[in-house]
Amino acid sequence: MSGLYYEEFEVGETIEHAKRRTISEADNQRFCDMTMNQQPLHLDADFAAETQFGERLVNGLYTMSLAVGISIPETTDGTIVANLSYDGVEHPNPVFHGDTIRARSTVTDKRETSDGGRGVVTMRVEAFKVVDGDEHVLVCEFERTVLSEKRPEGAEDGKSD
């Protein structure tokens, strides 16, 4: 378990996630197949060549899902009860096959549940594609709200210094 308990989240804290992932054509194809999304902009090279993008786009829901997955180890791995919502999803720039995605999460709000047994944490998750090795272009952003476990009595603080 590497996620944070409710008490360990700090409003205003930003976590730069170290993991990155380069998206392949096969990743995009499998995601579209699994979700039954047959949008030609994602799958048909000839169709996509005639659009303003000039090539196939990676499915935006895959990009969002990847950002969540990248963020889990440092935020909610083993400490989450449930994802409660994903709000304000935006895709300001396209993602193409071969783009490498990284993510960061910023804690924007937290509150205890009414019974005091758990906590609700909201994070702004941003996904960027790496361009020319060091430039980072925002490709997806959204609010992720989770129901988080509180630290069990007697458990040590999981944050590292």
TrEMBL record:
Which InterPro entries does the record cross-reference, listed alphabetically? Answer: HotDog_dom_sf, MaoC-like_dom, MCH/BMMD
Q: Which domain of life is it from?
A: Archaea
The residues covered by the MaoC-like domain are: 11-123
| Residues spanning the signal sequence | none
Extract the PANTHER family matched here. BETA-METHYLMALYL-COA DEHYDRATASE, MONOAMINE OXIDASE-RELATED
Name this polypeptide is given: Acyl dehydratase
Source lineage: Archaea, Methanobacteriati, Methanobacteriota, Stenosarchaea group, Halobacteria
